[in-house]
Amino acid sequence: MHFTNRLEAGRRLGERLEYLRGQDVVVLGLPRGGVPVAAEVAEALDAPLDVCLVRKLGVPYQPELGMGAIGEDGVRVINQEVLRGTGVSTEDLARVEERERRVLEQRAARYRGAAPPVSVAGRTAVVVDDGVATGSTARAACRIARARDAARIVLAVPVAPRDFARRLGGDADELVCLDTPWHFAAVGQFYADFAQVGDEEVTACLRRAASRHRHTAGAGSTDREVTVTAGGARLGGRLTVPEDATGVVAFAHGSGSSRHSPRNRFVAEGLHRAGLGTLLFDLLTDAEEADRGNVFDIALLAGRLLDATRWLREEPGTEGLAIGFFGASTGAAAALWAAADPDAHPAAVVSRGGRPDLAGPRLAAVTAPTLLVVGGADPQVLALNRDAQARLRCENRLEVVPGATHLFEEPGTLERVTELARDWFTDHMAPAHV
Q: Which residue intervals define the domain Phosphoribosyltransferase in the entry (predicted)?
């Protein structure tokens, strides 16, 4: 069994755990790689999400091999088998533990701030990681949940070795694993995309989950999966509209991306906090994405965005709201192409690391105020954006985020994009006139 990425693994794991839906459940993700998986499980179970902060104690000369783990509340798990096999001294172990304890404290402050952990007392704690190797971090997480008086602990992972149960040593009340292959070397071998997860993605997952629960509690709010029919295709989407929203922003994703894009979700969360709704939807079906040419078919993508705009104008809860477009990569060209259509009437457009130049001659017909955001360390795209800006006749601005590359993965850069988009949309979201 192989997983495309952590999001797919999380969705499949959520399906396996469906029997827990409706119970008093808290989902605990192990940072950093386990949190995107846990976020999908929490959404499937309609449960709150929190992190369970643990740190692997890696062998000094082979840090990917865990000789133990530490966690919040002073939890400590040591793998004596690994210690004996590697000959790590007590002094070396103490030095590694001291260093990881500092990282643990920094992560707690970054992910939660001053907020306390979500209470698991008397509840079922579902501990989730992207996989289990030695089992040390999973055991530490289960012990943290036990120390916090969880009534029941379920450890759930997409993949683990065949002796998974033996490695956990009874620290969980129930073990759930989608696959336990015979030939297991490392968790990453079972993922097509096992890229490192950054702190920004972790915080985005936590904010999105917290926002989902706030919206669920609000009588006038919406947060649900939707299907948008566009050009005969049925496209999956997520519509989130806070109570008393002043407008809604439709996201046009870039090449190879979808409504599950962690970067666009991060930006969407910032817009929700500002009272703006969002529609994150797939511009292409899975079959269409297989043809790379569709990703650069700007007319096709723009047509899908226009159909989604019409859908928003007729949908209960968004009817009458001002609509904005947020585009990333090739999605930025689609957003501007669509904005030039006489039927579109978007209140504002924002491009993140986009290719507005691909909208070509349509740029001069755009009337919506347009913000172009580009990374300062992305010189080729910056030049293309400057050329595109010169062809715009509407109110426009080019913002350069210092030190940011094309994907805005550097610390603080995606937060800056979110601030710029939020301010642009809130400044220009007047009631729609259609």
A: 14-179
What DSSP assignment string belongs to 186-218?
-GGGGBS--PPPPHHHHHHHHHHHHHHHHHHH-
- What is the reported pLDDT for 286? 74
Cβ–Cβ < 8 Å for 136, 56: yes
Instruction: Give CA separation, 28 vs 35, 63, 130, 173, in Å.
Output: 8, 24, 12, 15
One-letter amino acid identity for 154? Answer: V
Instruction: State how far the Cα of 362 lies from the Cα of 110, in Å rounded to an integer.
Output: 43
Q: In a 3-state reduction of DSSP, which class is residue 68?
A: strand
Question: For residues 124-162, b (16+ Cβ closer than 10 Å) or e, as one string?
Answer: bbbbbbbbbbbbbbbbbbbbbbbebebebbbbbbbbbbe
- Sign of the CA dihedral running 134, 196, 267, 14: negative
Sign of torsion over alpha carbons 399, 401, 402, 407: negative
Of the listed ranges 27-31, 74-78, 132-136, 325-329, the least confidently predicted one is 74-78
Residue 255 pLDDT more than 70? no
Give the predicted TM-score (pTM) of the model. Answer: 0.55
Report which of 271, 229, 232 is spatially closest to residue 250, judged by C-alpha positions.
271
- From the number of C-beta atoms within 10 Å of its C-beta (0-12, 13-18, 19+), residue 19 rates as exposed
**From the CA atom positions of the chain, what is the Rg in Å?**
23
How many CB atoms are closer than 10 A to CB 241? 26
* Closest by Cα among 433, 431, 428, 420 to 373: 420
Percentage of the chain lying above the pLDDT 90 cut:
46
Q: Which residue has the higher pLDDT, 395 or 61?
A: 395
* pLDDT (tens digit per residue) in 87-137: 888 888 888 888 888 888 887 777 876 567 888 888 899 999 999 988 888
Concatenating the DSSP letter of every residue in 240-284 gives: EE-TT-SEEEEEE--TT--TT-HHHHHHHHHHHHTTEEEEEE-SS
Q: What is the pLDDT of residue 142?
A: 93
- For helices 34-45 and 6-16, the axis angle rounded to 10 degrees is 40
Phi-psi region of 65 (alpha: psi -120 to 50; beta: other; left: phi over 0): beta
